[in-house]
Please model this.
Amino acid sequence: DTAVSQTPKYLVTQMGNDKSIKCEQNLGHDTMYWYKQDSKKFLKIMFSYNNKELIINETVPNRFSPKSPDKAHLNLHINSLELGDSAVYFCASSQDDRDRSSYEQYFGPGTRLTVT
Amino acid sequence: TQLLEQSPQFLSIQEGENLTVYCNSSSVFSSLQWYRQEPGEGPVLLVTVVTGGEVKKLKRLTFQFGDARKDSSLHITAAQPGDTGLYLCAGDNAGNMLTFGGGTRLMVKP
Model:
């Protein structure tokens, strides 16, 4: 069974369009995330969403908006797509393990977004 | 901003060789995680180290957390082609946002 799944796997679209990427986790985790991985493979956190609390990375443009219909889903909506948005977007989830002060994360397979 | 620097960025070795990847920061982390990512897939967690000076072994992989919890290393003994991939370290500052290093791309040639 897939723990963290994302759709679509590939997304090719034109500048100015609005698109969404869906993410679902069946691990029962409390926290979900969106990451962006650029062409140099640098992985950067975009959002963290836990129990309806959204933590936003301040460097993320407000064209990006996460939406969580329930604890198992965190979708990413992107408005007015730009060329620089081309990257691989990863969804992840974690279960807060306060005893070990660790947030081990489980990643989805990624969505490769290409903006032309 | 907490930064994690990984070195080397690229490493190409022959099967059977040993290697070490370093992850360094000027910040203290509550824990540090190592992930491995293969092309077209998401990162997969290898190990979490929590205590300063902690050493964990995973078959031929040995992970160490620095005494001051600012740095970590990954040592691979007798590397195999199956070890090829992108190795990422990630620091947790007791929040719920990980800071990732830039990654080390390892290629092990048969």
The longest strand of chain A covers residues 43-50. The radius of gyration of chain A is 14 Å. The CA atoms of residues 30 and 51 of chain A lie 7 Å apart.
